[in-house]
Amino acid sequence: MDLSDKQIQILEIAEKLFAEHGFDATSVRQIAKEADINIAMISYYFGSKEKLLETLLEYRNFDFRKEIAQIIEDTNLDHLHKIDTMIALLTQRIHSKRRIHKILHFEYSNGCRNINIDKHIQRKLKSYTLIEKFIKEGQSIGVFSKNVEIPLIVPTIIGSYFNFYYNKKMFMIIYHLKEEDIDDFVYNTLTNHIQKTIKALLTYEN
Amino acid sequence: MDLSDKQIQILEIAEKLFAEHGFDATSVRQIAKEADINIAMISYYFGSKEKLLETLLEYRNFDFRKEIAQIIEDTNLDHLHKIDTMIALLTQRIHSKRRIHKILHFEYSNGCRNINIDKHIQRKLKSYTLIEKFIKEGQSIGVFSKNVEIPLIVPTIIGSYFNFYYNKKMFMIIYHLKEEDIDDFVYNTLTNHIQKTIKALLTYEN
Amino acid sequence: MDLSDKQIQILEIAEKLFAEHGFDATSVRQIAKEADINIAMISYYFGSKEKLLETLLEYRNFDFRKEIAQIIEDTNLDHLHKIDTMIALLTQRIHSKRRIHKILHFEYSNGCRNINIDKHIQRKLKSYTLIEKFIKEGQSIGVFSKNVEIPLIVPTIIGSYFNFYYNKKMFMIIYHLKEEDIDDFVYNTLTNHIQKTIKALLTYEN
Amino acid sequence: MDLSDKQIQILEIAEKLFAEHGFDATSVRQIAKEADINIAMISYYFGSKEKLLETLLEYRNFDFRKEIAQIIEDTNLDHLHKIDTMIALLTQRIHSKRRIHKILHFEYSNGCRNINIDKHIQRKLKSYTLIEKFIKEGQSIGVFSKNVEIPLIVPTIIGSYFNFYYNKKMFMIIYHLKEEDIDDFVYNTLTNHIQKTIKALLTYEN
DNA sequence: GATGAATGAGGGTTCATTCAT
DNA sequence: GATGAATGAACCCTCATTCAT
């Protein structure tokens, strides 16, 4: 991953445009124009438009494992606080990288692109293993309810965020939010809601 | 909405292709070929590719209000069972129309298309009002916890589904599922998880 | 081979340009411009630039077998006159189709194009068989010398023509020819020379 | 003609690629890559791609005059043996430089390149003068037939070779040759054929 | 002298759409 | 009402060349 400043600039502009208009609706001309570079540079730097996307995904390495591991290993926090901290972390990270996640959802969820999704799956699986272990530990010491579908917890966390994000315009009406209020809302109200939801689920007995 | 059989056939093929490859990556030639009609017919019938999408969204009018209202008004069910029934209904409906929802997420969430999203927002808002009223009623009679961010409940339901769906490949590994097992999994395990989550949230006191 | 008038017009313009500037140096835009058609028509009609070339070669099916067979079977001509007639025919045909032959030499002789040369080879081989049979017959009745490398006779005929053609400019100086004299020169002086050469070879005893 | 080793290496690689794929289909990138030099070096060394071709043609100075003159002046050989020797020389030289000749045929025979062909014509004319003088001498002493189109003799020699070469694949089938047999075939069978042809022509009386 | 980044032009192809029939 | 030929714009990419270092 040796990327020059110019390359990084291109990647960030491409990320923005891909997220806004989709991969196909974004032309290399558009990227080149916004990045104020010659159109040929994109092929020169990245080989092709598709490889640019691959490079972008590699560049935005969204691997939260280390941070999650740190939280899990933190002896100062009890299990429920670890859940809070983890969710706050996830929400924050995903919100800041929401654009690249959207591209992933969009371009990857159907297997039509010639892009290798396997390593992403592998990376995610490792995060799941970490979280699963943590939850099971909590179950074994009686802090968490045993009757929980552990692998589906993360989709509930991340899905809550994204469904909010994909319906942002509606929620801006409901909550009387302006564009610049969104960050605060995510970090406070939405994060709180998700934290509460997961903690409720993990302590729910029926 | 006067649509001939041929038009409906085109819409359904377009829906499949848009969901699989995205709007931009699907060419009218492809649609025409799969529908076994002349290319010119698409412009002829729908005016343009964009208008075809609009017609498609209008055709797939996914308005659950009536059914939700029915459930809410059902005097045979207590509040918690109404939650279960509603979630089962939502999951089922969204799963069966996941393709069109995916198109909405990706083509609509960014305001770049010349497509009017307002009526969709209005329709969704009405559903929210219905659900909000039901939850508040439950709170007033002490069945539901008062400390809940009501508008964010629906994103948690639908988001859980979609984040599962967008990461389908990973969950197929985790749960050892084949493609043909997906429907059952959604209608059972995933639905149960979401039901439990929302019920936990609505009865959570801290 | 169902070709519209427009398609034939394109083929003939392409033939001219390919022969003049080579396949690679001729752009589809140039062809489209000279043929006064839209650039997209070339892909529409032929699929691609390479397929246009293939269609051209198929269209210009230069199969002399029938005429050669007629000459061979002509009972009014003795063997030496048949040689004369055959060479006159070959020279005439090749001269009139020199452009397509040049393309063949150029684009085919190196195996780099994704074009199937096999059927051309097969067709040529059949012509050779015909001529070979005729020469051997002449040898058996004592008209032709037996000490002749039969397969190399045709290269001497056609090669003489083409080496003249490829050095046309020099011969225009030597013979004080103008462009408009070339046809006559080919049909008379050059044809005579080749006829004499082959007859000399076929009757040469040493 | 001061050429460094690197320049000569570039020229030889360019010659190979031009002959294999044609001038236009060969990119400077390809040449630079195979020669393991920087792309910019080609413009730096030769000025441009076209000038590289000119330099190549100049470098491959295929002027047989001296050797032909030597043969003609050789008092140990009679006229017919001089013909044999000359043809053997021409065949050998042309075969070893067939690639550059091919380039000449195709890039030069049409006047579209901005390349000066005049000096090549001049050089060839001088060779012709030499051969013409020799033939006329033979005619005057009665060794050669007078009824011969002298300027067309050389095209028959060289044309025979090239038409064989451009149809190499067919002759490999006819003669059951492998690629590695070609050289021997050219130096023996083909050379013999051409020698016999020209001697027959020059002694043919009708 | 030599390099690799950068340029602008042009390559072939495919797009959604329209028009004449 | 329905077709297939035709359009012009835009697509991504690669070209030979140049420039700053």
Automatic annotation (TrEMBL), chains A, B, C, D:
Q: Any idea which UniProt keywords this protein has?
A: DNA-binding
Occurrences of domain HTH tetR-type (ranges):
4-64
Q: Any idea which residues the entry calls the DNA-binding region? A: 27-46
- In Pfam terms, one family for this protein is TetR_N
The entry's protein name is: TetR family transcriptional regulator
